[in-house]
Structure formats: C-alpha cells, structure tokens
Amino acid sequence: MKTLLSLFLLLAAVPALADDNLRCGNLLVQVGDSTSRVLERCGTPQARSTSIEPVFATNRRGETDQVGSVEVQRWNYDRGSNQFAARLRFEDGELRRIDFDD
User: How confident is the model at residue 3 (pLDDT cuts 50, 70, 90)?
Assistant: First the structure.
C-alpha cells in the first residue's frame, strides 16, 4: 500500500515538472534560460512577438500602483505532427513560462 501511494505521488508530480522543460532534439531548455540559450538549442521560432507590459504592486494602503514595466517576448514552436506546439514566454530576456497546445 505504501509503495502504491509513493508511485501515485510521483506520477502526480510529473505533469507539474513537464511544463518547466522543453526538449529540442536531444537538448533541453527550461524556465530560467536566456533567449540566446533557447535560440542555440531550439533554433528560430516559427512566430515571435514582443510587447512592453506594466508591472503592478500593492502599496501600504492596499491600492495597486504601476511600479515599472517589463519587456515580454512570446515565441511559438511548431514541433511537428507527433508533438504539441510549444509557446514560450520570456520576461526581460529570461524564459519564464512554457505552455503546450493540446
């Protein structure tokens, strides 16, 4: 019973880990990597967009104020018919999120 519970907990954690990594051929990129590292390992994305987005914080009175801005890049990789497409989000040149299309 203890082994079964351990296996269940291990398998439950795998999907959470999967979204932090992307395999490009034999190489792996992960959240925290730079744009140059992802380009080196995965090549040029099929689509790329850049925007400047505001950064907000709550002040002492509980109000929300804009405290700055961040450059956001979104890259899309079409990984072929046997794999889900990948959408990467970079903030100020650092990979922050990897999503896969279903």
Answer: low
Nearest in space to 86 (alpha carbons), one of 34, 37, 36, 29: 29
pLDDT tens per residue, range 52-65:
999 999 999 999 99
Q: Give the helix ranges, DSSP H, for the chain.
A: 2-18, 35-42
Rg of the chain taking only CA atoms, in angstroms: 18
Closest to 55 (Cα-Cα) out of 65, 41, 69, 42: 69
User: Nearest Cα to 24, choosing from 6, 47, 42?
Assistant: 42
Q: Where are the beta strands (DSSP E) in 3-101?
A: 21-24, 27-30, 47-58, 64-77, 86-91, 94-100
With 0-12 CB in 10 A as exposed, 13-18 as middle and 19+ as buried, what is 38?
buried
Higher pLDDT, 101 or 12: 101
Specify which residues 65 forms β-bridges with.
57
